[in-house]
Amino acid sequence: MPLGKDRLLPGLLTAALALAAAFLVHSLVPVLPAMTLAVVLGLLAANLPGTAVWVAGRARPGLDFAGKHFMRAGIVVLGLKVSIMDVMGLGWLALLLVAGVVLVSFVGTYVISRVFRLPAETSLLIATGFSICGASAIGAMAAVRRIRHVDTVLPVALVTLCGTLAIGVLPLLVHPLQLTPLAFGAWTGASVHDVGQVVATAQTAGTTALGIAVVVKLTRVLLLAPVVAAAGVHQRFSAAKAAGKAAASLPPGTLAASSMERLPPVIPLFVLGFMAMVGLRSSGWLPPAALDAGAGVQDILLGAALFGLGSAVRIRTLLHTGARALSAALAAWLLIALLGLAAALLMTA
Q1: N or C: which end of the chain has fewer CB within 10 A?
Q2: Within its chain, how far is the Cα of 328 from the centroid?
Q3: Taking Cα atoms as reference points, which of 117, 87, 89 lies closest to residue 102?
Q4: Would you tell me how many other CB atoms lie within 10 Å of the CB of residue 279?
Q5: pLDDT by residue (tens digit) across 215-253?
Q6: What is the C-alpha separation between 199 and 30, in angstroms, rounded?
Q7: Cβ–Cβ < 8 Å for 201, 349
Q8: 92-125 in b/e burial notation, b at 16+ Cβ within 10 A?
Q9: Separation between Cα atoms, residue 208 and residue 197, nearest integer Å
Q10: Is 284 exposed, middle or buried (0-12, 13-18, 19+ CB in 10 A)?
């Protein structure tokens, strides 16, 4: 049953105020991405005595709505950032290297998470977010695998934490590793999780680094659709197999139609929307003003969603249950950083 507007309004207004604060801080300190600030403000709102009761009570329905539905809408609009021509301009070697980084980091992060005894669903979400495009990828994978909204909170917190860590750490390694701006930009695009975090990290080395970083990163973003589609096929196959077993256990003549009707879609509609936006951007039909407006809408939608997700994280619970998850995330962050560095050096050799 849909929530009434009166139940959603307190949470949506809270998210709007928090998002305005995040944009204000970002305008004053550009190195801090607005999306990261939105998550941090959500964490603070959930854990400060003056606001914790509000976000857990009257504001919760609206914040949950934002975390789920605004995230999906933001993923659709994210497609307007990706141009197939820009991606193809990297060349086949770079494309293969980026795809290899995504594949190996996805598998590697999943294995690391399981070694640290994290649940399979949590491991899958962490692997998706770390290897592709942060919280957006986590939201897409959760939808296709029908993972509960509440179970996305920890992976989003971890991917935000590690992406923020990259903003501070990677620029410090430019001189020790003797990286050119081109190599540093490629490394940032291949290894940092969220688009905003990539921009914040790469811009420290100048416009050359920023340009290549954004294209490499958006190539990773483009891989969101095939990865989610593969997960959808697997989920549908598993659900169909389970439905078949259930039907076999029923008396003859009984059809488990309801089970078959509940088979998940191979690709969620919002991921198809994402691909449609990629096609629209690649067509060249949209003027720069429309693309700028789309970027603004995406920031608003994803920022509100990330605040909603962050406001569901209780630090005490995270510290109690998330030590293994944090260790797994840091190990995965190191793996992806090394893979991205190797790919960047090969790309720019």
Answers
A1: N
A2: 17
A3: 87
A4: 12
A5: 999 999 999 989 988 888 887 777 667 666 665 665 655
A6: 10
A7: no
A8: eebbebbbebbeebbebbbebbbebebeebbbbb
A9: 17
A10: exposed
Backbone torsion region of residue 146, taken as left when φ is above 0, otherwise alpha when ψ lies between -120 and 50, otherwise beta: left
Cα separation, 302 vs 304, in Å, equals 5
Neighbours of 148 (CB within 10 A): 9
CA distance 294 to 79: 9
Q: Which residue in the block uniquely carries the two structure tokens 């400060």? A: 48
Q: How far does Cα 100 stand from its chain's mean position?
A: 19
CB atoms within 10 A of CB 196: 23
What pLDDT, in 10s, does the model give residues 65-97? 998 899 899 999 999 998 999 999 989 999 999
Token pair in block for residue 6: 């009166």
DSSP string, 244-276: HHHHHTSPTT---HHHHHTPPPSS-HHHHHHHH
